Each structure stands twice: as C-alpha cells, then as structure tokens.
Amino acid sequence: xxxxxxxxxxxxxxxxxxxxxxxxxxxxxxxxxxxxxxxxxxxxxxxxxxxxxxxxxxxxxxxxxxxxxxxxxxxxxxxxxxxxxxxxxxxxxxxxxxxxxxxxxxxxxxxxxxxxxxxxxxxxxxxxxxxxxxxxxxxxxxxxxxxxxxxxxxxxxxxxxxxxxxxxxxxxxxxxxxxxxxxxxxxxxxxxxxxxxxxxxxxxxxxxxxxxxxxxxxxxxxxxxxxxxxxxxxxxxxxxxxxxxxxxxxxxxxxxxxxxxxxxxxxxxxxxxxxxxxxxxxxxxxxxxxxxxxxxxxxxxxxxxxxxxxxxxxxxxxxxxxxxxxxxxxxxxxxxxxxxxxxxxxxxxxxxxxxxxxxxxxxxxxxxxxxxxxxxxxxxxxxxxxxxxxxxxxxxxxxxxxxxxxxxxxxxxxx
Length: 415
Known about the structure:
This protein is mostly helical. It is 62% helix and 0% strand. It has 16 helices and no strands.
C-alpha cells in the first residue's frame, strides 16, 4: 500500500474551518446566519415536488444535495475498488472482519440511542422519529486527521480506519434514506434514469474501450469525462426524484465506469498516475472537494452553544459509548472464532480505531433534516455531532500516555 493522499489532511482543515466560522457567526448573529443560508432565490416548489431539493432550494440544500454527492462519489470510488480490484483491501474474505466491526458499531449505537431516548425526557413529536440513524456515519476525514497523529504516517491501521469509516458512512446514508418518512413513498420508476445512465455508460463508453479492434481516436472519444458528467446529472435527477438521498446519486455509475485493475490502497498517491476514466474523475474532484467540504461546514456545521439539551447527551452517548462498544464486541466475537483482524492489527490498535469512529459529523448532518423534528431538537443533535469531534484530541492525548501496541515486526508507530 502506498502513502495516502495529502488531500485528506486538507479536507479535514477545510471542514473544520467552515464549521468554526459558522459556529462563531451563529452564536453572535444567528438571524443573519440563518437568513443567508436559508434564503430562497426563487420559487423552488416545482423542484421540491420532484424531490430534487429538501426542503427547498437555498444555499444549504445546494451544498448538501448537489455538491456533497461529489465527495460521496470520491469516497465510494475508493471502497468500490477495495472490493473489486486485485489486491483490494476488502476483496473476498478480507471484507468480513471490517464489515462485522462496522455493523457491530452501527447496531450498538442505534440500541444505545433508543435506550438513552427512553431514559431521558424527550419531546412527544420525536416518538415516531428515526433519530436512531443519527450515530451512523463515522467522519472519515476527521478520523483520519486525528488517526495520523496517533498512529503516524503510513501505519497499517490508517487503511483499516479509512475502510471502516467509509463503510460506516455509506451504509449509514443508505439506512437513513430508507428509514426516512419520505422513503415510505419511493417512486420506483424514477430509478430507470440512473439505471439507464449506467447501462448507457457501460455499453457505449466503457465496453468499446475494452475492445481490441477499436481505433485509438474512438477510444479517446469514449474516454472523455464530459459524457460521464452528463450521465451523472441524469442519475442525480433519478435518484433524488425516486426519494433516495441525493448524496447517493452518483453511485449507480461506479460499476459502469472503466477503472484500473490494481488497488494501491485507499486514497493512494500512486493513483495520481493512473489514466482510466474513474481515476481521472477522482483526480478532477480532489481539489473541488476541499471547497465543497468548507462550504458544507459553513452551511451545516454551525453549532448553537445554547442548544444543549437531553438530545445532545443522547447523541454523544450513542457515538462515544455505543459505537466503540459495538466495534469491540464484534472484535471479541471475531477473536473467539479465531478470525484474523485486518492487517494483523492488535486489540490496542483496534481500540483506538473504535474510538476514532465515535467522531460523527459530516454524513450524519445529511440525515438530520429527516431523522429528527426541526427546531430545537435538530440543533441539539447538531451540537452533539459537533462535540463528538472532541474524541479526536482526547485520543491523541491518550496515545501519548498509552501508545497503541503493535505486533512484533509490524510497522512501528511514528509520532
């Protein structure tokens, strides 16, 4: 596995910068902040009826519905290659342990949410809400940022951390989309658009490039990214109008795109030299995603420090207690079954990974609009998600006192 791209560090800084600015403004002049991000430049009722933006077209929904899907495509591309490419980190049986730990964390965090919800007094309107999906989706960007400070650059644990956070995030998005009240009215026929776009992309763009008889000029024409950009827009319309989260809109195209044949690891620097359409698209998105995450932090990461309520504690309990406990319970079961842990990591290293997965920010914020009633409860949950970031610095400080132990012969921790 080659070193991970430095873009990941830039992503974390951009996200934190946007959220910090938003938090400062919302606590000084909340009226101006909300008037800005929720301003509707035109009547978006027709778009809303098509479910293209929720709850209406404004700066916040523009970022979450149209820009953030590019980030989701970028991370999904990495996990897709890990499943299907030669030497992929999740190929075949290698996926069992990480998937088991992710599912353990998701189940236990949802159970913890429900238990704490029953214990703490909550509003009546939250009884039928789907808040239990809120702890799903570990923040891959921030977890990696703090993980490098704990394990050091190039440590094998970082790849496992990325695997699990991305899996958790994508499964969380899918689960929250299916659990949302709007999903009770899925319009299946709209899914013909993403399926048709993927089929066209494979038959007209990818398969010709695999042919040995095609001319070089035709091969280059079929490999142009502008075709995929058009297909991506068609897929976005279909997925959104069908009632699924627009953040997943570009994923149906992944299996149809021509990709490399060898995995170098998640976000590996070596991928910058690959010229297949999927990796070229990834290179194209690397820079813009930094701006997208800054805008997402600016429009969705504002933490109202006065919104602290029982929902905040429930959010933190599900993330800080439920998720790590679920991951470690899955590890205990795997060890009892004598199933090897990923990358021969020790229980100590896995424990730090489980702790870093308790940081939930970016993707859970996407589910916030539909998972909980609006107003004070959403703001309290948002504050809980923001406070969960404190798990990162706490684990970094803990690692100085109790460095994660590694097996003899494994790559040492580089502080």
